[in-house]
Amino acid sequence: MKLGELGEDRLLGQLLPNLLSGRTIAIGPGDDCAVVERPNRGRLLVLKTDCVVEGVHFLQGRKAFNVGWKAMMRPLSDFAATSAVPQFALITLMAPEQTKVAWVKQLYRGLGRAANRFGVSIVGGETSSTPGPIAISTSVAGFVEKDCWVSRRGGKAGDDLFVTGRLGGALKRKHLQFIPRITESRWLTKNFSIHAMMDLSDGLGADLPRLARASKVGFKVQMENLPLTRGARISDAISEGEDYELLFAISPRDRSRLQQRWAKKFPDLPLTRIGSLSQLSTKDNQLLSRGYVHFQQPG
Amino acid sequence: MKLGELGEDRLLGQLLPNLLSGRTIAIGPGDDCAVVERPNRGRLLVLKTDCVVEGVHFLQGRKAFNVGWKAMMRPLSDFAATSAVPQFALITLMAPEQTKVAWVKQLYRGLGRAANRFGVSIVGGETSSTPGPIAISTSVAGFVEKDCWVSRRGGKAGDDLFVTGRLGGALKRKHLQFIPRITESRWLTKNFSIHAMMDLSDGLGADLPRLARASKVGFKVQMENLPLTRGARISDAISEGEDYELLFAISPRDRSRLQQRWAKKFPDLPLTRIGSLSQLSTKDNQLLSRGYVHFQQPG
After folding, report:
1. What does the pLDDT look like over A163-216, one tens digit per residue?
2. Residue B37 lies in a domain
3. Does the CB of B96 have a partner CB in chain A at under 8 Å?
4. How far is residue A217's CA from residue A41's CA, in Å, rounded to a whole number?
5. For residue B116, which of A42, A279, B23, B106 sits 20 to 30 Å off, Cα-Cα?
6. Cβ of B143 under 8 Å from any chain A Cβ?
7. Are residues A165 and A272 in contact, defined by beta-carbon separation less than 8 angstroms?
8. How far is the C-alpha of B238 from the C-alpha of B288, rounded, in Å?
């Protein structure tokens, strides 16, 4: 059966009962707005939206479950970057009328499974027909404690730069199956003073300069230290993107304590010092080859 | 200049300084997540996402300012339906690389002007290239006091049904320029016990049955009472959609007080009793011709 034959109301009627609904939700999917309990005292509200577009973030013919997984995990990776706890998600699905209903159901299975992985409730959304490619926009709301919150802005000259996991080669498989580093990020900010953090989605070559610019510092990277995925080259680690690992800046005074405690807490996930932040000086900054930048033509 | 020549970072760099930033915002556009102050005590968090797609919600060649206005006002109309106060918005823009940067700037002017009309701050967003039509997804967060909040679910048999404004003919002009009925909705719930409410976006024929279903009641509409836009027919009022007026259910005991106080408070906006809710009984329900339903082929 195709979407055009089923209709929006019946589609939502079939999808909604399967979505999560926690106790903090006054009213969830199916009404005009989602209405949920506000965050508690001492917490900030955190909001993020992101999208996946057929032909850009996934190729036609990819499994719908994996596409749904990625559509949910991309904004959750930004929650990891902020050390925030995601709670509520809204989905906007734009799909042509000839899209198979079975495909959409698998998409929502992937969205739901990914949300469930981090205790997130899908509380609403919207569907629209489109003459173009399938696109899914996911918006997530959650919270961060005032003393855990970290942005891209606090990096200081002299800070160590660390990345989690391995970089490069994500386009083969990982980009549809990755797990955002929320657990790791929450642990980091609870146990250390993390000066600045972000997630690597466009590649180190595009993302690190953003962190440095936001922190008003420069940077140096030891290319030979980059933790590479098996089979990936240094240039892949810099330019490919879709790694969804954490990049963060921390005082070198914390280096050995961080490395020891990390190895105990997350023995299966490498943590690698890739370089450091430096005084702002344009000629010091390395020219990293570009990561993946939307709308940017190859330079 | 085209988007593909400018690049995402420079695009955002040009757009962000013009967006609103209130005092409750810890960090706004440009970082991984938006982080804002949580709602106060006694208030619920309200979330809504919606989208506009070229060729579906607006035709190619429409003024970008008006498209931006509509992309912001659609979810705000859902806030009106919930009697909620919108505070923060996130924008996801999906656009082909050959899109003119000037068009995108006008789009954001429209988004910003519409947000400003209701004191909403645009705190973040995402841009993505797409091979398909331009699509804009807008997510809004805000609050509603527990005693003001209204959903589609509380309608009772015997309730009067009212609509604000005039119906039909919105596709000519109004759908790109409408003003969500937030002020009116907030006034209604502060001064009356509104049992159920929604905004009319798909047409009375599609939307009223949704309110009735959610409230588990039937309905009767006096067709001859429908308040028509000049030049519109009854069938336009039922089927065209895009009216963005309020439909609500209220006890008939409140009828005369409501009509008197409304006429004083909003002298330029008609308020019309169009029918009533009834006991649930399939054969009582009128068959309204369908409103605009996404994915539904004409029956």
Report:
1. 999 999 888 778 788 999 999 999 999 999 999 999 999 899 999 999 999 999
2. yes
3. no
4. 34
5. A42
6. yes
7. no
8. 7
Least CA distance to A152: which residue of chain B? Answer: B31
- Alpha carbons A258 and A260: distance in angstroms, whole number: 6
Same domain, B128 and B170: no
> What gap in Å lies between CA A237 and CA A205, rounded to an integer?
8
Which pLDDT belongs to residue A141?
Answer: 93
* A297 found inside a domain: no
Residue range B8-42, pLDDT digits in tens = 667 666 665 555 444 455 555 556 777 766 667 77
Mark out the alpha helices in B160-203 (DSSP H runs).
182-191
Reported residue count of chain A is 299
A248 touching chain B per CB within 8 A = no
Per residue in B249-288, pLDDT (tens digit) is: 999 999 999 999 999 999 999 999 999 999 887 555 555 6
Cα–Cα distance list, B109 to A90, B10, B114, B190 (Å): 25, 17, 8, 32
Please choose, from the candidates A56, A57, A61, A124, the residue with its C-alpha nearest in 3D space to the C-alpha of residue A93.
A124
Query: pLDDT for A259-285, tens place per residue?
Result: 999 999 999 999 999 999 998 875 555
Q: Which of A229, A227, A264, A267 is nearest to A247 (CA)?
A: A227
Q: Diameter of chain A by CA atoms?
A: 63
Higher pLDDT, B39 or A144: A144
Mutate to test the interface with B, among A49, A99, A216 (most CBs of B within 10 A): A49
Contact A187, A247 (CB under 8 A): no
Residue B296's pLDDT band, with cuts at 50, 70 and 90, is very low
B49 and B106 in a single domain? The answer is yes
Give the span between the Cα atoms of B199 and A251, in whole angstroms.
53
**Boundaries of domain holding A121:** 3-145
> How many whole angstroms separate alpha carbon B67 and alpha carbon B70?
5
What backbone phi and psi angles, to 5 degrees, belong to A125? Answer: 160, -170
Query: In which band, very low, low, confident or very high, does the pLDDT at A258 lie, cut at 50, 70 and 90?
Result: very high
Q: Does A163 touch chain B (CB under 8 A)?
A: no
Residue after which a domain boundary falls, among A110, A145, A180: A145
pLDDT for res B172: 78
Q: What is the ipTM of this complex?
A: 0.83
Question: Which residues make beta-bridge pairs with A218?
Answer: A278
- B138 lies in the same domain as B169: no
Tell whether B153 is covered by a domain. Answer: no
The reply to whether B23 touches chain A by the CB within 8 Å rule is no
Return the CATH number at B127. 3.30.1330.10
Count Cα atoms within 13 angstroms, Cβ side, for A245. 29
